[in-house]
Amino acid sequence: MPKLSDRGIHMPESPIRKLVPFAEKAKAKGVEVIHLNIGQPDIKTPEIAIEAVKNINMPVIEYSHSAGNESYRKGLAEYYSKVSPGISFENILVTTGGSEALSFAFTACFNPGDEVIIPEPFYANYNGFAESTGVNVVPINSNIEEGFALPPIEDFEAAISEKTKGILICNPGNPTGYLYTQEELDKLKQIVEKHDLYLFADEVYREFCYDGREHISLLNLKGIEDRVLVVDSVSKRYSMCGVRIGALVCRNMDVINTIMKLAQARLSPPSLGQIASEAALKTPSTYFEEVSAEYVQRRDLLVDGLNEIEGVFCPKPGGAFYAVAKLPVEDSDDFCRWMLEEFEHKGQTIMMAPASGFYSTKGKGKQEVRLAYVLSQDKLKVALECLEIGIKEYQKVEATV
Amino acid sequence: MPKLSDRGIHMPESPIRKLVPFAEKAKAKGVEVIHLNIGQPDIKTPEIAIEAVKNINMPVIEYSHSAGNESYRKGLAEYYSKVSPGISFENILVTTGGSEALSFAFTACFNPGDEVIIPEPFYANYNGFAESTGVNVVPINSNIEEGFALPPIEDFEAAISEKTKGILICNPGNPTGYLYTQEELDKLKQIVEKHDLYLFADEVYREFCYDGREHISLLNLKGIEDRVLVVDSVSKRYSMCGVRIGALVCRNMDVINTIMKLAQARLSPPSLGQIASEAALKTPSTYFEEVSAEYVQRRDLLVDGLNEIEGVFCPKPGGAFYAVAKLPVEDSDDFCRWMLEEFEHKGQTIMMAPASGFYSTKGKGKQEVRLAYVLSQDKLKVALECLEIGIKEYQKVEATV
Questions:
Q1: Hey, what domains does chain B have and what are their CATH numbers?
Q2: CB-CB: which of A4, A96, A111 is closest to B108?
């Protein structure tokens, strides 16, 4: 038989989804699995978006323009002009989720073997997109003890080689929930100017910033407009992950025109998802206020609850709906699997994402897990109870091994 | 500024879509453009699929399983078991269009620099997927004079190098409409066995075979089951290109498991499109009979009409809904552009896809165009009239240059 490709073999499994078979087995045994592993919110999709889909009046579900429907792109231009004045629809390509936007960005900007610096822990699928496009991730470590703040500029300088071609951040961060300050973004600006790099930001959680803090988009960094590529998605903003609609926003038209060729090859982004997404632009601001208020309550409940468990430490995130917690266990991969395979409390257990998959450096994050607070407060309370009891039981097992 | 990637720079423009700006200008002048350039059928999407979308009852449009909804995959398994007995849902991954299925197949099976042999002319976007995944296309020529039959086995042998890792066919063919015979497929089987290769088929036009001929799927080639990857899509089958739902079908579970990791990285295929696609599995067979009958009439009208124009030659396709015609012009790229920029007849003109983009060998196909017979017979009649008059006028212009 011909061999599989090296990139196929080395492609990492998703730490968010790799434990799914164990969860399925637990469910088959009748155990209720509370999913803290995946950022699939239970928040309702705005009715205006659902109604638009239900009211489609199209005898043929046709391809859209490869860049997305122009009416939608113009609607997005209004949205982004509030984020950063002067974004035109020509600066926006509609993509199949933020995933495709990032794959396109890597493919268009990097040669195989080029390096991208990413503060870790980072969204695990960046490893997947890097592997499939032949790009090498160079991680620099941000620490749970410092709440995952941007690493010092010296760490970036030390990581830069002649192969370095860009820096990628996620802001607010997945998995950390960290929200970057203006000072931190200004530091990144200095570095990319000095070393002639691209600067990518995954800003899909832009709408979810808490405690009165405002999101600062990379699109607002003056003087490096041509270096900045922003990856976005409607998945979390409107709680409609399944429509698979994202966007690539960039003022550099050479980049846009190159990515447009990639977009043409795959013909068009999903038409039905674009209908939902265009309608969702009219979502009333009260929706976001309510959703944000709910996430803040969930965050406080979860994070405060985590820190009350003996041996657990979890910095309070400033945005998104994830938290990374350090647990008093040796190996969170094993612990997360054990929680699904061996544990139950009143017929329930929890599924978490082991944080090791969110680090590129081998051995990092072994005691950490990512938790998504996308479920009701009642569920989160049960989850905390399961976790507290689970840790105690697991520690006994650990001690006997 | 940092440079764009080499693959980004070399990424070909779509020959199907690259003339869009000229078409837009023509439309802005008030000229009606008849689109023969793109396989966007005017055939109605089955009502059962549209109704399923209109009747969605989901408060949250969630991610699906990365492999696609299990209920849909099980429905597909029934469908494919009619194509080839014994296909299980585990052999099927739901993808974002056939495009993603092919990108996944290339990424999982080929290292950058590996070679895939494709009989040309071939679907232009294969060049794009090859470029973006670092795979080298080695074309072998099939000729319009022989109706685009499979090139002789010696041509394959001559093209095989130590870098060759697979052969890709499109059956029935886009752009040629050619339908391969059992003998031709058996030849391919011999070659891939002898040289230890993968064999890929794009079978998205499977349902459209004419004149009583039956489609033979690669899934039916005995003894090479582990080498065969089939790319499929609902786009053309149910005339719903915009839902962006395809499939990768393969009996080799190592391949499936590797592609599953790529699928996990992009989270899930579109949920709304899957709802339409699952419902479409129940499309009555009368739908396909009517659609096929309509395509046969259109084919006969178009192809017979083309062959009546002086200097034009077009072999009659056995399937799909495309035809490649040789025109009495020096450079069909220039002619197609001229038809949009300079020509109109009674306020109308036609947009065609220059065939050069469907060849990998430089200089091939320069006199040829691809025409999609996806429009009403009335429109096709007008298109033929435009083409006949357009050729005559263009020849005068050519003569004076």
A1: 6-44+286-400 (3.90.1150.10), 47-280 (3.40.640.10)
A2: A4
Q: What is the DSSP string of A179-197?
A: ---HHHHHHHHHHHHHHT-
Q: pLDDT digits over B313-368, tens only?
A: 999 999 999 999 999 999 999 999 999 999 999 999 999 999 999 999 999 999 99
Q: How far is A4 from chain B (nearest CA, A)?
A: 5
Cβ–Cβ below 8 Å for B266 and A99: yes
Burial profile A87-98: b = 16 or more Cβ within 10 angstroms, e = fewer: bebebbbbbbbb
Q: Give the tens place of pLDDT for each residue, A192-244.
A: 999 999 999 999 999 999 999 999 999 999 999 999 999 999 999 999 999 99
Write the burial class of residue A395 (CB in 10 Å: 0-12 exposed, 13-18 middle, 19+ buried): middle
Closest chain A residue to the Cα of B39, Cα to Cα: A63
| B6 closest CB neighbour out of A40, A64, A111 | A111
**Chain A nearest CA to B204, separation (Å):** 14
Q: In this complex, do A4 and B271 lie within 8 Å of one another by their Cβ atoms?
A: no
pTM for this structure? 0.95
Crossing angle (nearest 10°) for helices B271-280 and A271-280: 140
pLDDT reported for residue A243: 98
Q: CB-CB: which of A4, A125, A266 is closest to B99?
A: A266
Distances from the Cα of A112 to the Cαs of A98, A274, B131, in angstroms? 21, 32, 12
Q: Tokens 């689970």, residue?
A: A390
Both tokens of A378, joined, read 């009642």
Q: Which residues pair with A116 in a beta bridge?
A: A137, A166
Judged by CB atoms closer than 8 Å, whether chains meet at B45 and A64 is answered as: no
